Structures are given as C-alpha cells and as structure tokens.
Amino acid sequence: MKSILKSIALLAIFSYQLLIFNSLYAQTTLSEANRQVIIQQVKQEVLDSLKNEPPKPIGQISQALTISGYLETYYSYDFANPSNHARQPFVYSYNRHNEFNLNLGFIKLAYNTDKARANIALMAGTYSNDNLSAEPGVLKNIFEANAGFKISKNKNLWVDAGIFASHIGFESAIGKDCWNLTRSILADNSPYYESGVKLGYTTDNGKWFLSALVLNGWQRIYRRDGNNFPAFGHQLTFKPNSKIILNSSSFIGSDVPDSTRQMRYFHNLYGQFQLHEKFGLIAGFDFGAQQQSKGSSTYSTWYSPVLILKVSPTDKFSIAARGEYYSDANGVIIATGTTNNFQTFGYSLNFDYLIHNNVLWRVEGRGFSSKDKIFMLNDNANNNNYFLTTSLAVSF
To answer: N vs C: which end of the chain shows fewer Cβ within 10 Å?
Structure first.
C-alpha cells in the first residue's frame, strides 16, 4: 500500500513538472526536439526512483511497524468418542473431538524501535475458549497486548508491561513453533499466558537472558476476586552456542482468595540440544508445591518429566517422538476424584511436512495410560486413552 501511494505521489510530481515545463516552454523558443528530450529525462528520473526503492518484506508497514498473522486449523478423533465432543478436561489445545475446527488464529501488530516497543494481537479459536474461560468479555480474545521501553542507554535492559506469552516452558500456544503437534501435559497445565510487568536483561553477547516478573496470578489477566497478593517469577536462559538452550523459570504466588491463601511454588527446567544437523532433543522437568491450607507447613506436590526427540531427514519433512509422565497425586492441578488422582504416562509420534515456507501440515498419534481408570473406552471406564490429530498451520 505504501509503495502504491509513493508511486501516485511521484506521478503527481512528474505531472506537475510537466505542467511547469510546458508553461515555461510557451514563453521560450526551445525546439520541439529539445522539449521531448527534457520530458524523457524527467520521466526516467521518476521511473528510477520507483525502481531503486527496495521492496519491503510482507507485513512491513514501516521501519518500526509490522503486521503478521497465524492460523491453525485441526481435526482430532478421540477413541473415547465423547458425545459432547469435548476431549479431556486436562487438555487445553486441540480439544474438540470429531470436528474440523480452528485451534488458534490471530492478527498481530508490532512496533519496535531502539528505545520503545509494543505488541497487540487479537485471537479466536478453541484455544482461547479453553484457556481464557475465566477472563471476562473481550479479554478472552486478547492473545498479546504489551508495551515496553529501554531503560539503559548502553545495555539491553527493558521494562515491559501488559499481557504476554508465559515465561514458563519450551512450548507455546503457536503450534508451528513446537516440535509436537499437540502440547505436552506439563505445558497444557502450566501458564500459556500471563499479565503483569517484567524487567528483562540480555547480555551484550546474547548468551544470557534474565528477567524478573510481578504478575496478576497463575495464568490470569483479570485478578481473582479476593486475591490481592501479587505473584512473582523469574526466567534465566543460557545459550552458550546456537545448538544449546538451557532455561530455568519459576512462579511464586497464590491462586485463591487471601482469606484461604495457599502459597504455590513452581519451577520449570529444560534443555534443548541440537545433537546433529538432523537430530534434536528436548528434556524438561516441572515441579510444584502448594500449601494444603493457609499457613500450613504441609505441602501437596506434583511433578512432570518429558523427553522429545526430533529427526529431520529433509528440510521439509520431520518426525518427533515424545514420552512424558505427570504425577499429581493430591489433585492440585488435575483433580480426577479417584484414589490416586492423576498419575499418567503419555506418548506420541508426529509427522510434519512443510508444504511451503509458511504452510505446515502435521499428523500425530497420541496415547495416555493412567494409574486409575479416569478415561472412557467403548463406554466403559478405562486406564487408557488414544487419539489422532491432524493440523494445517499458515503464518504470514
């Protein structure tokens, strides 16, 4: 659009120059041949200006302003065959059974300069329905909305405030950025997003990133009624080289009213390793503890290890296998009402094909195996659950 407007402006200038030139020509004795030569020179200057203008990347509105988007549709079939089409209560992405649907679609506007930055993204999809059900009104459709400024002249030190993607974990809501089609149990049951203020610092060599956060709560934009206690977090990321990422993230806070405050302490640790040009590995571990009652010295704990191996035979085709375990014997995060609550193994295998640079098609088979019979299969309670999912993601 900007290039079109510039072309119109240059053509207007060209027309104006011709008008002035014709006016002068009427008052001089220039020959017709000389007149045509001058006209051609002016025309060539305009064409050269258009030709020499470097093309901007798609979505680049100006040097500081860009617009981008993402859309991921999916189909999932759960062999439990739930009649209400809702798959599992502990799954918060791709959670509709036997229907074609939109998991996540958003449009994002980003502003970025050396001293200030801002992002706003509006979304729709079953992801927002499942994850932001506690948020009121239009807040359910905000994927990201934050602004920040640089507070040091010589160092990469920023303060940002607003709604962000979570600082916890190696997976995000954006499917194409994750090695597996569906999210791990630990990712689905820790924050995808957060709201608050953060101070972030990146070292000059880019190897270390450190941030400290003050938040409204555990995956909350709208603070819970009766809860006035702020939550806190940290993130420490180390990238010794382009093949290794080590990360530590934490959360400290309460997700209940102050009158019954139960402090929650949570830590996520993961490492991402590019073992070879075609082989990658992610190892992650979550651990959490929450007071059983206000002021209590007794805590209920949960934990989850996960291991993901990715193989990329070609630039367009990749395979990823995942093994995981989630133990929440006291039902702090995932309560089932059974004797052992949620103690479940998970495993999956997905095949990815990059149709174009911005179009990704994926297929995944996944299963869960639990200590208690918390699933349904053939209309009977069962320890196991199986499902197939396919998705198509387009980014622009």
So the answer is: N
